[in-house]
Amino acid sequence: MRTLSKSRFQKGLQCEKALWLLLHRPELAASTSESQQWIFDQGSETGRLAQRLFPGGVEVAEDHTQGDQALETTARLLAEGARVLYEPAFSFGGVFARVDILVAADDGRWDLYEVKSSTRTKDVHVTDAAVQAYAVEGSGLAVRSINIVHLDTTYVYTGGDYDVSALFAIDDITEAARAFMPEVPTAVARLQAMLEGPEPQVKIGERCSSPYGCDFTGYCHAFLPGEHPVTALPRIKDPLLHALLDLGVLSINDVPDDFARLNAVQREAIAVVKAGEPHVDRPGLARSLGGLEWPVYHLDFETINPGLPIWPGTRPYEVIAFQYSVHIQHEDGRVEHREYLHRGSDDPRPALARQLVADLDTAGSVTHYTPYERTQLRALARAVPECAAEIEAIIDRLFDLEPVIRQNMRHPRAAGRSSIKAVLPAWCPDCSYADLAINEGQLASVRYLRIVKGLADADEAEATYRDLLEYCGLDTYAMVRLLNEMLRLSRE
Ligand code: SF4
Fold first, then answer.
1. Is residue 348 a part of any domain in this protein?
2. Among 26, 9, 10, 12, which residue's Cα sits nearest to residue 215?
3. pLDDT single digits (tens) 181-204
């Protein structure tokens, strides 16, 4: 029988098929994206920092390909009397686990610490830590406490070295982890037996994205049609999805009209897809747009939210705007473009805020898409108090285009979704993010962080700045195009 690492055990808990595919058909997995790799790397950096909570420890340095050597080193260090170990390895009952930090307690037992770069302890962390404790105790050490170390969002960075005792919070999850530990041997045996058999039959559903995005989505979802799969129904949950799949319904087009379990939003999405043509509430649209004041300033921010704060005065995961784009649309059709992208490695917000209040002038609606820009403006007002009054005045001019579209314009290609990435290609099919080097916000953030952290050379930095300007500029140009379309439809 195979020994399961704790990460494979966790994968098997999320979906048996994912674990089976990982071991038998790994070539089907999607490659790790740049954004995912960045998250992994940040997790490693956080793990190394957390070791400073328990100084003077000794590291088991072997990597994940050297499991047997790591077990040997751990056994030797324990025999030599080590009191604090980083990354020790244990194997018991079909489980192989590396513990982030293991600390000897005064009573001869051990305290186990699992480090997460999250801001709180999650349910999935409990099973993760429990399987480690199971391997540790099975190897002959008594565990006194089981803990999750995570980032504390109340910590304010003051510059220089991090104060790790304030940067991290520790949650004692001994009780919850111990409650799960008796289930570990049964779960391991079940997964081991499953791995010896054929590919398990598992229904797609919420498990494909929760608690973690699955690498095999491309393979498992390939039976669905490329256009209007039932999974694209707004806010679809497992009971509805599985009921439709059991009926053989793969496309939104094929959902029976009298299907009982649909909510109003889903019924509308199905109706517009089946109709095959857009539906516009022209009076409603005209009424909504009547609230616009010209000229219209279309605003979009790009942001970063590093887990480990970069600038004094900021907290873990604080969202920091580093770029914006503004397209100014006049009633006579003229369009101007203004933008700001902070270059350099200092806090972008003071210079960005000063430029923003100048670029947005003092009159005219400031359109945005979803509440995100409002949140960013509020954060900017707090971070740059000398601009707070002007930013508050900008907040008073905000006009959100998303509810106007959601309430008045339905397009079969958007299928009930109202995100700009769904709506733009539906209403303005020539306007696309597909050819951009940076085409989504997470990647924009990662590329900018590479510059700020000194990981990008001058050529990479220049290329990134160019790509960021193109990406953010398209976001607000898209709003110009959408508003033009909305105005045209409202007047027809
Ligand atoms: S895509 Fe979904 S069903 Fe397929 S292996 Fe992943 S979690 Fe399981």
1. yes
2. 26
3. 999 999 999 999 999 999 999 999
User: What DSSP character marks residue 3?
Assistant: -
Within-domain flag for 138: yes
Q: Which mutation among 16, 21, 194, 217 tests ligand 1's pocket best, with the greatest number of atoms within 8 A of CB?
A: 217
Q: Which residues sit with their C-beta closer than 6 Å to ligand 1?
A: 15, 17-18, 21, 202, 204, 207-208, 214, 216-217, 220
Pocket test residue of 13, 15, 25, 223 for ligand 1, highest count of atoms within 8 A of CB: 15
Statement to judge: residues 241 and 312 lie in one domain: no
Instruction: Give the distance, in angstroms, between the CA of residue 87 and the centroid of all CA atoms in the same chain.
Output: 26
Instruction: Name the residue range of residue 259's domain.
Output: 224-276
* Assigned domain for 242 exists: yes
The pLDDT tens digits of the residues spanning 330-384 come to: 999 999 999 999 998 899 999 999 999 999 999 999 999 888 999 999 999 999 9
Q: Confirm whether 152 is domain-assigned.
A: yes
Written as one letter, the residue type at 4 is L
Q: Which amino acid is at 197?
A: G
| Whether the predicted model's global pTM rises above the 0.85 cut | yes
Structural tokens at position 380:
């900017």
- Among the three residues 236, 259, 276, which one is the final residue of a domain in this structure? 276
